[in-house]
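pasting for the record
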Amino acid sequence: MKATQDTAPKAAQPVAPKAAQPLLLAPSKWRPWEFALWLTIAVTPFVFPQHGALINEIAILALFALSLDMILGYAGIVSLGHAAFFGLGAYGAALFAKHVMPDPLVGLVVGIVLGALLGALTSPMIVRGTDLTRLMVTMGVALVLYELANQFGEFTGGADGLQGIVMGPLLGRFEFDLGGRVASIYSLVVLFIAFLLVRRVVHSPLGVSLEALRDNRLRVSALGMSVNGRLAAVYTLGAALAGAAGALLAQTTGFASLDVLDFHRSADVMTALIIGGAGWLWGGLVGAIAFKVLHDLISSVTTQYWTFWIGLFLVLLMLVGRERLFRPWTWFKRGGAK
């Protein structure tokens, strides 16, 4: 009897909270390569001042892709009309600079607030529907805003665009130059702040619950968590970041047109996120860099058919896989990439 008791399996001991804390905090710690990559990004406007305009475009697209990643990659909300928030932020910042105050930082806040308001207003239609419903609703909202901007041409400029936007100096000292150096630094700083915010959210209890919700919505609701509230919160946050990206574009280019609300704007950011990888903090940044560099290189060779080569690249990416495409030596390993 005693031997039986000695050999009986012991009950699993619960892990102490202090012992489990390092495991929970491990994903939120910065890796050395992250510091190195951000340092490389920070010095690009100074190392390549002649490419200031391109760096600015990459930073804005990266911020736009980061906002979509919050909605799609972490919450699983599919969207084909993310340009609605981008365009509203662009027009809001442009109109504010033209008629109220040319200060860039205040205009940026206006774009963020407008994007967040639109996200909060449309979130009830998003959180309750299926994927198909969300696709149609998001695309419909963008199309409605596009037509409104086209019809009220006395305010938005219509098909000719909103012109005559003169931005004041950044922080009262730095004028926006034609080379785009100040604009690129401004956009990169905003991108970095947004990245820190998203990183904090992703590694918070809200971010963990969003990933669980994306994988199994019924199980999360069965645990008593507010599914709709979490989806609405992350949708509003993503909309605010998209509004910031649109405001940056209008401020750094001094122009806002119907192009900021067009469907191709939503398609471009979706393409960039697919290239970089959804559900990964660096996916939007990597995808934006790859998309813009490919666009710039291919357009220098053929200005009319660059979309063909981008499409061919996407097909290869989907057929071969991201890891095997960028790590060709894994093709010869048995079982493929690991």
